[in-house]
Design a protein that fits this description.
By secondary structure, this protein is α+β, with helices and mostly antiparallel strands. The protein is 42% helix and 19% strand. The protein has one domain: Ribosomal Protein S5, domain 2. The chain is built from four helices and four strands. The chain has a four-stranded mixed β-sheet with strand order 1-2-4-3, with helices on both faces.
């Protein structure tokens, strides 16, 4: 293995902070969450939330369509969403599954994710 750059090491460390069990992976889970009536929007994001009683920690999934841009842009947006979600997971209830859909490439998702999670949490509590 070659020498890892400082940026690559930092990226790997950030990804490890949001563990694999925090991610939605199955198609069925994505479908169930996006059909949920609990929904909230911000300037460039739409969030969906459903509660799953047998979960011990929240799970998050991301949808970034081709309308956002090419592959490099979509992956950059997904990384930004993942990183911003990591620091805001504590806002969500433990039994929640959340899907975040990007509607446009936005540089300021770090401010939008906490607002989105708070709005979803409030709607789920009703």
């Amino acid at each position: 293995m070659g020498h890892l750059s400082a940026n690559r090491m930092r990226m790997l460390t950030q990804i490890k902070a949001l563990r694999h069990y925090h991610f939605l992976t199955s198609r069925e889970d994505f479908a169930r969450v996006t059909r949920s009536p609990i929904r909230s929007t911000t300037k460039s994001l739409v969030g969906y939330l459903t509660k799953e009683p047998n979960l011990s920690s929240p799970k998050v999934g991301f949808v970034v369509s081709r309308a956002i841009g090419g592959s490099v842009i979509r992956h950059r947006v997904t990384r930004q969403l993942r990183h911003a979600s990591k620091s805001s997971l504590h806002i969500l209830p433990a039994q929640s599954m959340v899907v975040i859909r990007a509607t446009k490439p936005e540089q300021n998702v770090h401010n939008e994710i906490p607002r989105l999670f708070t709005a979803l949490n409030e709607k789920a509590g009703r």
